[in-house]
Design a protein that fits this description.
Blueprint (H helix, E strand, L loop, with lengths): L13 H10 L5 H31 L2 H20 L1
């Protein structure tokens, strides 16, 4: 996938830059930094989704879970009859 490139000046800690230089392989430093940033942003998105899911499921009340279980049992009984 081709991305639109935009020049931006950022400061990077020397130890981080040295590690990027050591691990970039045949790619440019810019390409390596972009790849690492994409990966980090994707990881953050997954973490936010996990947090949202945990919050959503923790908020479902006991009565809602009981209703869901009752519905599942009724559905199983219906399917057994068919």
């Amino acid at each position: 996938m081709k991305y639109m490139r935009m020049a931006k000046s950022l400061t990077i800690d020397k130890p981080i830059l040295e590690e990027i230089e050591q691990t970039k392989g045949p790619y440019s430093t810019s390409e390596r930094v972009n790849a690492l940033l994409r990966q980090a942003l994707e990881q953050e998105r997954y973490q936010r989704l996990e947090q949202e899911a945990a919050q959503f499921f923790s908020e479902s009340g006991r009565s809602e879970r009981q209703e869901a279980r009752a519905f599942q049992r009724a559905s199983k009984r219906t399917l057994k009859r068919d």
